[in-house]
Amino acid sequence: MENAIKKAIEGWYSPVDRATKRPISVLQLRKQWRVAVLDPLFWKALGKAEEWSEYAVCRKHGKSDCYRVNCFEGYAAEWLYHQHNFIDHIASGGSIDDFFNELLAGKE
Ligand SMILES: [Zn+2]
């Protein structure tokens, strides 16, 4: 998670407290990372830092050129694809750190 926060800040993520609408410092963000993972702007910023596609990718396979037979999943921005995967991962009992370690693997 630490690495994901670092990356999102590189992608100009500026978190805001939803209740007060006031900016959250990076230090606060490290404690309140649950706010970040639910925030679309966090994922967009992460995508900017990671140079994910700004264009649509297949919702199921994450590819911009998915021509698989019988793939009718529809298309979404790549950050949305990763956010959905994240939610599925958490819903099935996966660890948050494992998810981000794998997502950001080999990219320092
Ligand atoms: Zn597909």
Query: Helicity range of the residues?
Result: 40-55%
Radius of gyration: 15 Å
| Alpha-beta content class | mainly alpha
**Terminal Cα span:** 14 Å
Portion of residues in beta strands equals 5-15%
Helical stretch tally:
6
Mean pLDDT: 87
**Series of H and E elements:** HHHHEEHH
Question: What topology, given as strand order, has the largest sheet?
Answer: 1-2
Q: In the residues, how many domains can be counted? A: 1
Number of strands: 2
- In terms of quaternary structure, what is this? single chain
What summary fits the major beta sheet?
2 strands, antiparallel
**Low-pLDDT runs:** none
Shape: globular
Describe the protein in words:
- The chain is mainly alpha-helical.
- It has one domain (2-103).
- Helix content is 49%, strand content 6%.
- It has 6 helices and 2 strands; from the N terminus they run ααααββαα.
- It has helices at residues 2-10, 26-31, 33-37, 40-50, 78-91, 96-103, and strands at 56-58, 75-77.
- A two-stranded antiparallel sheet has the order 1-2.
- Helix 1 (2-10) packs across helix 4 (40-50) and helix 4 crosses helix 5 (78-91).
- The protein is globular, with a radius of gyration of 15 Å.
- It starts with a helix and ends in a 5-residue tail after the last helix.
- The relative contact order is 0.16.
- The model has no long low-confidence stretch (mean pLDDT 87).
- It binds zinc ion (ZN).
- Zinc ion binds at residues 58, 60-61, 66, 68, 71, 73.
